[in-house]
């Protein structure tokens, strides 16, 4: 069995033990005693109910027609009503429906800096974005930390 080079880093929750797994994951990080990463994953996997909000996604005329008809069937709009489009995501719906849909994400993402540890999130996203083989290194993982916690906190994490 290969010897693991277990390291320790201080976090907001104490000490995190981890190692780089070169045999199975090309240098991915294995966290041994992460305390907040399950909560982070749960937050990231929370999604609003598009039908309840009156939102659909369409990337073709056919998908738009199906989605529009579905909103009529659900009672969110009447046939012939105009709806709005979110240009960044391909989402369509009423102005209020789109606002409620995206507010859900804003509210759930606001919990991350309160409930999760930035070092654990960095290691998780380092693996998730395959930074160990990326041309720009850990940029994506680091930028997420900056987005959630700000530059000052991001400067305190142990980068790989």
Helix-strand blueprint:
Elements: E1 7-11, E2 14-21, H1 22-25, E3 28-31, H2 37-44, H3 50-53, E4 55-57, H4 61-74, E5 84-86, E6 91-93, H5 95-110, H6 112-115, H7 118-128, H8 139-149, H9 151-154
Antiparallel strand pairs: 1-2, 2-3, 4-6, 5-6
Helix pairs in contact: 7-8
Key structural traits:
alpha+beta; 48% helix; single chain; 3-stranded antiparallel β-sheet; 160 residues
Protein architecture, described:
Helix content is 48%, strand content 16%. The radius of gyration is 21 Å and the shape is elongated. 24% of the residues are buried. The chain is an alpha+beta fold. It folds into 2 domains: 7-35 and 117-155, no CATH class; 51-108, no CATH class. The model has no long low-confidence stretch (mean pLDDT 95). The strands form 2 sheets. The protein has a 3-stranded antiparallel β-sheet with strand order 1-2-3. Helix 7 (118-128) runs antiparallel to helix 8 (139-149). Strand 5 (84-86) and strand 6 form a beta hairpin. InterPro entries: DUF7659. Pfam families: DUF7659.
